[in-house]
Amino acid sequence: MQFITPITISSFTIGNMESSFSSSLGNNSSRILVIGGTGMMGQHLVKASLAAGHPTAVLVRSASSSKLELLETIKASGATVIGGDIYDHESLVAAFHQVDVVISAVGHHGPHDLEDGQLRIVAAIKEAGGSVKRFVPSEYGCDVEQAARSAAVLEPARSIVLAKVRVRQAIRAAGIPHTFVCSYWAHGFVLPRLGDPHADGLPVTRATVFGDDATRAIFVHEADMAAVTVRAVDDPRALDKTLYLRPPANTCSLAHLVRLWEDKTGRALDKYYMPDEELVNRIRDSPLPLNFQLAMVHATVVAGVCDQTVDAEAGGVEATELYPDVNYVTVHDYLDGLKESLTRNVNS
């Protein structure tokens, strides 16, 4: 059987998978490969996989100087770093022959880039035969199939949503065992700006508010997204399903989010409630990725597209019901942490 050739860049060696996984033959946990494991979501997935006891590998294209320290940290944590590229079909097939689960956390610069990269992974999984027992494509947002049915999702978000739908269709058509993960808005991206993609950080005197109290967003910490995803990959209840992460304590409007921050800081903010027409104009006039982020804000808290129900008939399952023991980081918890961080910075 072919194994991936080690790659050496500067003083860092990217190894193969034969030696690393042969040492874990007594481990009955699925062998997990994370693609995009050096990105924000990918790092959380690697940590969650290792914490759950899975033999874990990370596929990396190259060890650039900016990533050497991170890759050393990943290796030191117990993961195997292997060389490969989603644009190198043979390297993908060789890697997939060695693992049970493939989790994608690959980023993108637009709908074509997203679709092309994910379809290359799908093609390699298909060629690897039945080696891969579960595939989790790179989503971690709203249920794109529900969103695609609404005309309220504006460009460029609509093109990206439709690209993800086509990836789902390709996965099903190829007969690849899968779990689609809908984890909505990531704490670390949204909460430090109180839901305003324009903002550089937390508001000091003035906050822009999108939507009203009737439309809500769902917020999930990246570590919780990753932990639930890893639990699902060996769970037959999540096989060929769409898994929704909707912790009730983390569902609120952006207007409520701003009020929470006011309560925690004891400081009232001057609030500007952006009219829907102005938001639509800003989406039209802004560059990527800001226009995409604003379009998702519009879809979520103006159009209400992402305040979604679990479609059980279409294969939807609720993570809080499958894994009731998971203690999610709440919006309150995260905002408390932000406040403590600000206090430390002021006092230092």
TrEMBL record:
InterPro entries: NAD(P)-bd_dom_sf, NmrA-like, NmrA-type/Isoflavone_red_sf, PCBER-like. The lineage of its organism: Eukaryota, Viridiplantae, Streptophyta, Embryophyta, Tracheophyta. Residues 29-335 form the NmrA-like domain. GO terms for molecular function: oxidoreductase activity. Keywords: NADP, Oxidoreductase. The keyword Oxidoreductase applies. The keyword Membrane does not apply. Gene3D superfamilies: NAD(P)-binding Rossmann-like Domain (3.40.50.720), UDP-galactose 4-epimerase, domain 1 (3.90.25.10). This is Isoflavone reductase A622. It comes from the Eukaryota.
